[in-house]
Amino acid sequence: GNSESCFRKYRIPRYETPRDLLEMRQGSCKESIKAWQDCYSEENFVRMRRCMEAHPHYYQPLLAPIEAGGEVFEKEMESFLMPSNEDSNQQKEEERQDALYLRFCKFMEGGDCKEIFTAFLHCVEEDDESSRCLEVKETMSKCIEAHSDYYQPYLAAKKAASEQICKELVAPFVKQA
C-alpha cells in the first residue's frame, strides 16, 4: 500500500523542506525522485535508487539513509532468523551470511508466497533489471501483505528500515523543541 511521505509524517511543510534535499531533486534523477514522492511503490523506489547509485557523488546525502535502512532490515531479520547468535563468534562472517540467507529463503518459502518469492529470486540471480522483474517484486510485496500473519517478521523489518530511512533523511532538518 501507499505509505505517507517522510515530509508529511514529520510535518515539514514543503517551503521548509531542506534546501539541499530540494536541490537533489534538480539533478539527473529528478523524475524518479518525484515519481517516488508522488507514489511510494517498490518499483518507483528501485528506479530512484538505481538512478542515484549511477550518480553517487551528487546523491550521497540520500544514498546514506537508504543504506542505513538496509542495515536495519538485515539486523531485524537476523534477530528473527538467528535469535540465539548460534556460534556466531566461531563462524566466519561469510559463513554466517550464508546461513542467514538460507534461513531467510527457507522462511520466505515456508509461507503462501513461495512461488512468487522463487520467481523473484530467479530475477535477482539473473541480475534482471527489466520491468518484468520489478513487476514480480511488486506482486511478491502484495502477496506478503495479503499473508501478513505469516510474514509479520519480514514486514516488521521492512517497516523499521523505512522508518530509519525517513528519520535519517529529515533528522538534520527537524527543529529541536
TrEMBL record:
Residues 22-77, 93-169 form the GCK domain. This is GCK domain-containing protein. InterPro entries: GCK_dom. It comes from Capsella rubella. The lineage of its organism: Eukaryota, Viridiplantae, Streptophyta, Embryophyta, Tracheophyta. Pfam families: GCK.
